[in-house]
Design goal:
With 202 residues, this protein is α/β, with parallel strands linked by helices.
Amino acid sequence: MSEPPVTILLVRHGRTPWNVAGRIQGRTDIELNEQGRLDAVLAAELLRAHAPLRIVSSPLRRAAVTAERIADALGLPTPALDADLTEQGFGIAEGMLWPEFESRFPDGHVPGAESKLDLVARAHRALQAHAVAIAPGGVLVAVSHGALINAVVKRACRRDLSDYPGAAANGSVTHLSWRPDTEDPANAIRFVERVVPLVEPA
């Protein structure tokens, strides 16, 4: 009988001023705004019932602070930082508003930007490396970024993307499962569901 999978809960960082303005952040290190700090608290409440054992994060401040607030709320150790969970690099497009990006790069190709293949490869490397440290049936929380989470989830969904839940909102929790005994390591991570926190009124 195969061992139970490790649950990976991917959390998108809380909101930032650039999220609100509609600017592409990429690897530009933008801090959370007040709503973003609340997003982290709300995400922690979604995670509480899963009793996670460990939390890891991108080192960019918007993710790292989200992870710190979650860890504090759940009584977890200080989050480990992993550069492989950093957001996709968007090259010269970072800082642009999305309409400008779509006008200048209608095919999505940006000089100097990181490819989706490289993004998914390093994200999988990070998630599986941290999942190995979790006992079968245990829970890992990983705080990261929109483009990375969306790319990982598309890879983890069915081939026809019929179960793809769409882009990850700030503070959302995406439930994945990882089985170390899967014959094809590229398909070891599978999509389960996504949960979006109810935003408290201002």
